[in-house]
Amino acid sequence: MTLKNTQPYTTNRDRLSCDLLVAGAGVVGLWTARLAAARGLNVIVLDARAAGSGASGGLLGALMPHMPERWNPKKQFQFEALASLENEVRKLEAETGLGCGYRRCGRIIPLIKPHHRDLAVERIEAAENVWDSAQTGYAWAVSDSPEEAGWPDAASGPNGFVHETLSARVSPRNYMAALKASLDSKARIVESDGLLSFEDRSARVTTASGTPIDAGHIVLAAGHETFELLGRLTGRPPADYGKPVKGQTALLDADIDADLPLVFSDGTYVVPHAAGTVAVGSTSETDFEDGHGTDEKLDDVIAKASRLCPALEGARVLERWAGLRPKAVRRDPMIGVVPGCKRTTVATGGFKITFGIAHKMAACALDFALDDQCPSLPESFTIDAHLR
Ligand SMILES: Cc1cc2nc3c(=O)[nH]c(=O)nc-3n(C[C@H](O)[C@H](O)[C@H](O)COP(=O)(O)OP(=O)(O)OC[C@H]3O[C@@H](n4cnc5c(N)ncnc54)[C@H](O)[C@@H]3O)c2cc1C
Asked: What is the CATH number of domain 11-56+174-241+330-387?
C-alpha cells in the first residue's frame, strides 16, 4: 500500500489531506505519528481534548516486565520493548532537549508467603535465560532483606525480597511533552477536535468541528474511546472490543532518593521519581460513575503504600489523579487492520503496560498501515484473536 501524498497536509478549499491520520494523541498515537513522520509520511494527529490528556497524562510511569516463566511471544514482545525503550528515550531527549524522567531503577518485590520465595528462586534461572542476563546484565535475585534499609519495610517481606534490575520508570507527563515536542514541524497536531465520523472506503474523516480530512489511512489510537469508534465503524457493540478500567494514583512529596528502586507488592506500586517525589497507585475499577474523580479508594492505596515504605508516612500529597485505561476484551493490546476496513488500523488496549511498549505497538500499527501486515506481532494481539 502506498500512502505518500505530494504535499504536506494539503488544503483543498477547506479540506485537509494527509497520508496518515492518527486519532488520539496519547502515548500510542504520538509514537505512531513520530514513527510515521520519520518515514516521510504527512501526518495529522487529532485529539478530542489535548495531547496527553487521557490515560497517558498520569503520574505512575512504572515499566515492569512480565514474570520470566512460561515465556511466550507476548512476553518477548514486551521484553524487547522494555530493553529498547531506554535508547529511544535518550534519542527523544537529545532531539527535543526535554528530560523524560526515565531511569532503569529496578524493582523490589517483598515475598509474603513461603511459596512466594520458592517461586522467586525458580525464577532466577528462568530470568537468566529469557532475559539473556549474560549479555544484557538484567538479573533477578532473591535476598533476605532489602538492599536499602526500610525501602521497603523489612517486615513486608517475611520470606525475603526479589530484586530485579530490568524494571524502569518514566515520568508520564515529561515523556508525553517530549513526544509532542518531537513532532514540532514534523506532523500537525490538532487539539480540541476529535474524530467524529469516518468512512473506511474513502478514508474520509469529519472532525467534531466539521473539518473534512482526506487521509490515506487512519490509525485509531484513542485509548479506551477507540472501542466506541470501532463500534461505530463496524456496527458491533463497543464492549466486543474492550472496556475502560479506572485507576487512581497519587503523587507524594516524600523527600526520598530518586535513585531508589520501585516497589511492587500485592498490586500496589511505589515509584520514586525526581526531586524526592513518589507516585503510588493504583486502583483497578471496572464499575465507576466518575471516571476522573478520586475517593477513599485512593486513600487506601496511599495508606497501603505508607505501610510498605514507612518513609512515605505523613508525606504531603501533591496531587490525586484518576484516569481510564484501555483494556481490550482479551486483556492484551489490540493492533491491526480492522476486519473489512482496509484503510483503518487500530492500536490500543495496552492496559497496564502501555508506557513500556507504546513505541513497539506504534511500529506494528504503522507496518499494518503501510504493508497490511506485521509479522512480529504476537498472535494474541491481533483483532481476530480478540474477537474470537
Ligand atoms: C491510574 C493509572 C495508572 C497507570 N499506570 C501505568 C504504569 O505505571 N505503567 C504503564 O505502562 N501504564 C500505566 N497505565 C496505563 C497507561 O497509562 C495507558 O494504558 C496508556 O496511557 C494508554 O495510552 P493510549 O495512547 O492508548 O490512550 P490515552 O492516553 O488515553 O490517549 C487517548 C487520547 O485519545 C483522545 N481521544 C479520545 N477520543 C478521540 C476521538 N474521537 N478523536 C480524537 N482523539 C480522541 C483522548 O483525548 C486521549 O488524549 C496507568 C493507567 C492509569 C489510569
From this structure: 3.50.50.60
Q: Is the CB of 216 under 6 A from ligand 1?
A: no
Find, among 101, 82, 90, the residue nearest to 167 by Cα.
82
Q: Give percent of the chain above pLDDT 70.
A: 96
Q: Where is pLDDT greater, at 82 or 199? A: 82
Is cis: bond before 152, omega within 30 of 0?
A: yes
CATH architecture of the domain covering 104-168+243-327: 2-Layer Sandwich (3.30)
For ligand 1, the distance from its centroid to the CA atom of residue 7, given in whole angstroms, is 31
Pocket mutation for ligand 1, best pick of 283, 294, 355 (most atoms within 8 Å of C-beta): 355
Q: What is the 3-state secondary structure (H, E, C) of 5-32?
A: CCCCCCEECCEEEEEEEEECCCHHHHHH
Domain(s) labelled CATH 3.50.50.60 in the chain stretch across 11-56+174-241+330-387
Residue identifier of the C-alpha nearest atom 52 of ligand 1: 247
CA–CA separation, 372 vs 368, rounded Å? Answer: 4
| pLDDT range class, residue 284, cuts 50, 70, 90 | very high
From its phi and psi, is residue 137 left (phi > 0), alpha (psi between -120 and 50) or beta? left
Residue 217 reports pLDDT greater than 80: yes
Give 28 Cα–ligand 1 centroid separation in angstroms. Answer: 8
